[in-house]
Amino acid sequence: MNSHYNPTKALLRRDFIEYRSSFLVTPIVIAAFLAVVAWGGAAFASQFSDWEEGIGWFVANQIPDAQVDIEIRSSSDRADGFVSGDWVYPESRTQVVAESEWDFSADWTFSTPTMSSGVGDLRDGKEFNEVLNALNVIFLLVLWTISVNYLAGSLYNDRRDRSVLFWRSMPISDRREVFSKYLTIGLAVPVVYAVISILTQLLIVAAGAFFLARTTSPLEQVSGFSWFSISEIFRNTALKLPVMIVMTFPLYAWSLVASAWAKKSPVLWMFGLPAGAIFVERWLFGSSWLAERVARCLPGGEGYESMLDMFQATWPEQVAGVVVGIGLLMLAAKVRRYRLEL
Predict the structure, then answer these.
(1) pTM, whole model, 2 decimals?
(2) From CA 213, how far away is CA 85, in angstroms rounded?
(3) Interatomic CA distance for residues 62 and 18, integer angstroms
(4) What is the mean pLDDT of residues 305-319?
(5) Cα separations (Å) of 123 from 119, 152, 210, 214, 217?
(6) What gap in Å lies between CA 338 and CA 174, rounded to an integer?
(7) Do the Cβ atoms of 83 and 71 come closer than 8 Å?
(8) Residues 235-246, buried b or exposed e (16+ Cβ, 10 A)?
(9) What is residue 244's predicted lDDT score, i.e. its pLDDT?
(10) What span, in angstroms and rounded, lies between the C-alpha atoms of 191 and 24?
(11) Pseudo-torsion of CA 48, 51, 57, 60, nearest 10°?
């Protein structure tokens, strides 16, 4: 036998081969789509001198029948006045100016009346950070979906197709197998999704910096926007990952117990028993203690600040949750040992 052989590493590799589409292909496809959209939008928008000009081009060329209200501003002394059908002075919006008083030699700027300065929002980086958070949420939602699918079938599918008899012939203990299942979905896969999410957000930031550079923004503004966005990416994604792993541990461990025990529909055991317990608690005691704890275990349910504050405020409960999770993993290994058939 190879002296460097590691059974746990081999089990992890097996799961990544079996679930390659969910663990690797899906996040890469999502990242590629978002990057193409972001860079395509940046390349298109950077062709115009300002944001409103690009919107005006799109409306004029792609929506020819659209009804657009045009606001006309002058760079002369009447710069605060506007025209919406007729020229109106800023101090008297009910007084209509005669046509002869129009100054056609002035420099005019055309814009939609309700258009805000999207470029200004992009330069300060704060509103752009909401876009980055939304991208991270997309990856978390996909991660949560594939986690449910994996956990439901992790210790159930091989009993259904009876391949469990083959795996029982291998020199691998039930505890090691259950532990490797948790390592796969509780640690390895979230790390993969977090890395891909970070790289995607960095590409989006690069697209934003490219747009600002092409719209003649000062170099210090582009640099400030980039560094602020990059720091927020690692703060909201990388630093959030360890907290999320700890908080999801008991929920994932229970899901492995359900997958090892169920004779059919392990998803019903995964969600049905906690939902029933929540309903009984609500009905008997009128409280929602268990519901709040289950909600905390859902990945990506809270922002970084609230999740970290919650973790610090409830760390005794989180330690208890880790202890419960370890007990549930041991229970899953016991059930796995004796529950070989459906």
Answers:
(1) 0.73
(2) 36
(3) 46
(4) 72
(5) 6, 45, 12, 13, 9
(6) 10
(7) yes
(8) ebbeebbebbeb
(9) 83
(10) 11
(11) -170
Query: How many angstroms separate the Cα of 14 from the Cα of each of 18, 29, 255, 269, 314?
Result: 6, 22, 20, 26, 37
Question: What is the distance between the alpha carbons of residues 261 and 139, in angstroms, rounded to a whole number?
Answer: 30
- The residue whose two tokens read 């117990």 is 257
Are 120 and 200 in contact by the 8 Å Cβ rule? The answer is no
Residue 109's alpha-carbon distances to 46, 90, 120, 170, 312, in angstroms, are 19, 17, 18, 76, 53
Angle at 178 between CA 272 and CA 242, to 5 degrees: 80
Could you write out the three-class secondary structure of 193-253? HHHHHHHHHHHHHHHHHHHHHHCCCCHHHHHHHHHHHHHHHHHHHHCHHHHHHHHHHHHHH
**How many Å separate Cα 167 from the centre of its chain?**
36
User: Rounded to whole angstroms, how far apart are CA atoms 50 and 54?
Assistant: 7
Sheet architecture: strand order including 86-88: 86-88, 82-84, 71-74, 108-111
Q: Which residues pair with 71 in a beta bridge?
A: 111
Question: Pairing relation of β-strands 108-111 and 71-74?
Answer: antiparallel
**Tokens of residue 51, six digits:** 């944001």
Quick one: pLDDT band at residue 240, thresholds 50, 70, 90? Answer: confident
pLDDT over threshold 90, residue 63: no
Phi, psi of 254 (to 5 degrees): -65, -35
Average pLDDT over residues 24-41: 91
Length of the chain equals 342
